[in-house]
Amino acid sequence: MREFINSLLIASLVVLFLPLCSSAESWRKVVDTGFGNPSNDYAWSMATFKGKLYVGTLNSLQGAEIWSSSTGEPRSWDRVYKTPVDTSWGVRYLYSDNDESLYACLFNIMGAVILKTENGRRWVTVARGGLGNRNNYTVRCMTRFRDYLYAGAGSNMAQLYRSKNGFNWELVNANPDFGSTKVIERPTGIPVTNNLLIGELAVFNGQLYAFTWTTDFNIQGMRGAPATDRMDVQAADRMDVQKNPVDFETRDLDPFEFVIPTPGAFEVWRSYDGENWEKVVGLDDAYGNGMGFCLHDSENLDNDAVTSTAVFRGQLYLGTESASSNSSVWRTSDGTRWEKVLDFFDLAERHNRYIWRMIPFGNRLFIGTFNSGMKIARATGAQIWASSSGDPGSFDNLVRDGFDGETTSVYFGQIPKNYGIRSFGIVRGNLFAGTATILSIMEVGGKPGVMGQTVGCEIWELTP
Questions:
Q1: pLDDT digits (tens, 9 = 90+) for 174-223
Q2: How many CA atoms lie within 13 A of 265 on its CB side?
Q3: pTM score, whole prediction
Q4: Which residues pair with 154 in a beta bridge?
Q5: Residue 53 to residue 72: CA distance in whole angstroms
């Protein structure tokens, strides 16, 4: 009789446990080896447009590509754009404007290019040459605010552009100017511009928010030219901070997002009309936040950039890039008072160097990270964290070891193959994540990075 009761209890537990097992989430790979072209190193951007998911790639060998699918299923993807010249290395941002037009922002060493399509196949160039400033190699963000479409750009100074029709673009004469924040360069003592790129834009509580970077990356280094003295000094500073030269070397794996910062940190600005701006996080802001939230903690001066933003459950979230690998997620309900909700350093996740993308999906906020470093140093590769509330302590890691645990060879050893989640997208109610892999031309400052190995980006789908 006792054996019968024990068996009945076990059977009951199994029945109760089955629904839990069946509801467990998993990730399924739907795109491999860069859509069949291993030179497509990053799924650099995603957007949903007219019922299809679009993915823009980074391909520094053969030029940018755009792929689309109505389902996201394997073998359902079509290439809908291929850059005719190899100077456009990748599609850094895709933006669907009220599902009427899709914009593609191309990184180009001759100045950023913006494409526009109304059907997903016929693309028209609506801006080139960095929108009048060839130093603007890239447009990293775009959003609709009131009557205008805004685009954030920069290289030697953060600049904001806008257009009413998507064809004619004008430089916004911001008051005060984003370049008004000056910091002192060491050891010269010369004041330099702090905000060199607008990396993110968001609309929140009826205002337009602009999030700055201290700089983007060294275009001269990408061309093989020697670094400037300023960059050498700052690199040495970062080495002193991290106390780990090997880990510092791994930051070179991602020159398209690698920040060589000014002595300052990021700032956050907001505006009701797109022209008159208020600094809410930054040097001498009126709310006691300081650059990079340094007035909350002086170590936040290492917050060089805001690499992702999202509005979730009535609050505005931002994710940082930290030179000391202390990346974090912050949120605000009013734009002026901010709280930290996720701290990777406190979680002993020191290889999550920045929060690359955020997206609300299925009543949760999803966060994708850039997780670089050597496997022997326990770098795991790309991670995805999710929370249903966004509160401190509520985030769970859904992805470890870059989905599949595979590695790739570089000149100093093995690194995770998928070392970052570079893009998120949604189609037919399903969430997709695009990865970043080692650059095919990985050569920064004359140092070869890849040992004859190209792997290509991947797309993974979250399945119930």
A1: 999 999 999 998 878 899 999 999 999 999 999 999 999 997 764 544 43
A2: 24
A3: 0.88
A4: 138
A5: 7
Q: Choose among 220, 227, 258, 455: nearest CA to 372.
A: 258
Distance of CA 258 to the CA centre of its chain: 11
Residue with tokens 């789908």: 461
Length of the chain: 464
Q: Give the residue, 292 or 440, on which the prediction is more confident.
A: 292
Dmax (CA) for the chain in angstroms is: 87
β 78-82/88-97 pair status: unpaired
- Cα 438 from Cα 258, distance rounded (Å): 13
Residue with tokens 């191309």, as numbered in its chain = 106
Q: Measure the N-to-C terminal CA separation of the chain; round to a whole number of Å.
A: 40
* Residues contacting residue 91 through CB under 8 Å, at least 6 positions apart: 44, 45, 56, 57, 58, 64, 65, 66, 104, 105, 106, 107
Question: Residue with structure tokens 């940018």?
Answer: 64
Q: Say which DSSP state 375 is in.
A: G
275, 285, 283: which is closest to 175 by C-alpha? 275
Rg (the chain; Cα; Å): 22
**Residue 111 reports pLDDT greater than 50:** yes
- The sign of the CA dihedral 41, 116, 200, 179 is positive
Q: Are 137 and 130 in contact (CB under 8 A)?
A: yes
**407 within 8 A of 414, measured Cβ to Cβ:** yes
Which phi-psi region, left, alpha or beta, contains residue 378 (left: φ > 0; alpha: ψ -120 to 50)? left
Residue of higher predicted confidence among 96 and 409: 96
Task: Give φ, ψ of 265 to 5 degrees.
Answer: -150, 175
Nearest to 212 by CA among 133, 309, 134, 132: 309
SS3 at position 131? helix
CA–CA distance, 95 with 256 (Å, rounded to integer): 19
Q: Looking up tokens 């930051």, which residue turns up? A: 251
What are the φ/ψ torsions at residue 451 (nearest 5 degrees)?
-95, 70
Residue 350 confidence (pLDDT): 86
DSSP assignments along 232-254, one per residue: HHHHHHHHHHH--HHHHHHGGG-
